[in-house]
Amino acid sequence: MIEVRQLVRQVGNQRILDQLSFDVKEGEIVGIIGPNGAGKSTLLGTLSGVIRADEGQVKLRGRLVSDYGRRELARWVAVLQQGGLAPAAFTVRQVVEMGRFPFQNWLGDETTDSGAVIERALEVMQLKELANRQLHQLSGGERQRVALAKVMAQEPKLILLDEPTTYLDIGYQMQLLDAVRDWQRREGLTVIAVLHDLNLASQYCNRLIVLQRGGLAAAGSPQDVLTPELLREVYGAAAVVLPHPLTGSPQLLLNPGQPNSNEKGGT
Amino acid sequence: MLLLGASALVSLSIGSAGFPLAKVWGILVHQLPFMDQSAVEWTKLEEAVIVQVRLSRVLLAMLVGACLALAGAGFQGVLRNPLADPYTLGVASGSSIGAAFLILFGLQHVIGLWSVPIVAFSTGLLTMFAVFWLARSQGAMGIETLILSGVVVQAFLSAFVSYMVSLSQGVVNEVLFWLMGSLSKRNWGHVQLLLPFVIVGVPILVAYARHLNLLVMGERHAAHLGMRVERTKVTVLVVSTLLTAAAVSVSGVVGFVGLVVPHIIRLLVGPDYRLIVPLSAVGGAIYVLWADTLARTITSPKEIQLGIVTAFIGAPFFAYLLKRRKTGMREETGHD
Fold first, then answer.
1. In a domain? residue B334
2. Whole domain around residue B289: which residue ranges?
3. pTM for the full model?
4. Does the model's ipTM exceed the 0.90 cut?
5. Which listed site, A152, A197, A214, B49, has its alpha carbon 20 to 30 Å from B114?
């Protein structure tokens, strides 16, 4: 579904993305991990078409991202941003309706009735009772649920998540990622998620792509990728990796105070 | 809309020569081509006062109000800044420079009928860029710095307009006209000048109302929903500046209309620009109509400047918004 080839993004003299190549298949949940400044958010921006690559290409369904119209792209790629929605005075329902923007003509009408889509998004995200509340009256966790409901109303086939769990309590983090995974399974969606929390990434993703200084450091299943060696190499962190007692996914336990044996680690 | 119609009718009947409402109605209906010409119970003079003097002025007040309030709604939407308005951004003063220059030096028709609005638009647009350039530091534009730059530029331009007026041996009245705005001594020609801008401007801004809604949630967010963010911002800013320039070239600088009206509308109907934009046009029309009615009657037979009336109402309102933003709405600036 997605082919990234030799992607370069340069700002001044610095290469944010450097000759990056990888593929994502339809129906996968792929996690993008890596230290701060590795180029994760920039990569997501080039996939969603809001950041232009300097060299190389990104193909979605065999077609270059740059060849899509903005609206056309938004009809099947949706982005859940980090930090959630601004606390505006719009009601929950109004915000979820904004997800229909790429389908509306200049009068704001759609060819098909989208009422059912919006109701369903509200229901799945348990926002029915909050539908007429204003956004600034909600908690951060509730606002992130609204953001996901809006993304659902967009009816995408590909979802890009940009650190969706930042600023959320662990309960809300689980709730959000569970909701994404349920939705992904129901509709057979493709999900690409930039995740900070490696333990969550390991639990929810089929495959992990590790970025380091704009290049590919490793890619593969969580079991293959999350090793003490890689963590030391990429993050400069000493950790023990154990299988989760219930799910078997690799989980890491940090070793505080351990001397960092490898100076190549990220910054 | 009903309120607007009623306001217009009442305002027509108020003036240094008072008319009963029924007579005004009669004269107006009589003007319609398909009404028969019987039973005239007013003099030719009375008819001339209503049709030539008052009706054109009432329409002009409504059009100026609609332009300024629309422009205010547009600026506030694109800049996501509740204190933005043609006056506070200096765009109105910028437009007045161009218009004043042409009119004071008798160059109104150098490039045809539209000379004044075109030049006013150009200088207004230039001023807007100057203000943005002043306000911008490291790519970010704070609300307070933007307003501050607007004030600085506006003060400079006002001084410049005053200087030009004094050069042209104009009377003090004319200085007052450009700095405080007025609708006195205007005629149907001015109405014809302004009307096309409203007819074109309203549908464009209404069509972009949904875009402005998305912008409230942030530019990235809007881009992810398939909106062309830059194109939207440029279109709305240009249309808003054009509306401002058109209004300024017939009425001078009338302050605070674009600030007060969209805010009141927002308080009444909520944050949805699909309602704010058209209702601001109507609200602006009503607001300036009444402000102008006050301006021409309160010290009758002497007129006071329209801008004085709108500033009397608008400036305290501006102060109130500034205060409330500082105390109550701090969390709104917390996130992007």
1. no
2. 2-33+40-325
3. 0.83
4. no
5. B49
pLDDT tens figures, B60-91:
888 999 999 999 999 999 888 777 888 888 88
Domain at B241, CATH number = 1.10.3470.10
Instruction: Tell me the shortest Cα–Cα distance from B279 to chain A, in angstroms.
Output: 17
Instruction: Give the number of A-B residue pairs with CB atoms closer than 8 Å.
Output: 74
List of chain A residues whose C-beta atoms are within 8 Å of the C-beta of residue B223 = 50, 70
Binned at pLDDT 50, 70 and 90, residue B5 comes out as low
Give me the number of domains chain B comprises: 1
Is position B332 within any domain? no
B336 assigned to some structural domain:
no
Within a domain: B134: yes
Q: What are the backbone angles phi and psi of residue A21, rounded to the nearest 5°?
A: -135, 135
Say whether A101 and B207 touch across the interface (CB within 8 A).
no
Contact B224 A50 (CB under 8 A): yes
Inter-chain contact A81–B224, Cβ cutoff 8 Å? Answer: yes
Band (B334; pLDDT cuts 50, 70, 90): very low
In angstroms, the separation between the Cα of residue B227 and the nearest Cα of chain A is 7
User: Considering only CB atoms, which residues of chain A are within 8 Å of chain B?
Assistant: 48, 50, 69-75, 78-79, 81, 83-91, 94-95, 98-99, 101-102, 104, 106-108, 136, 154
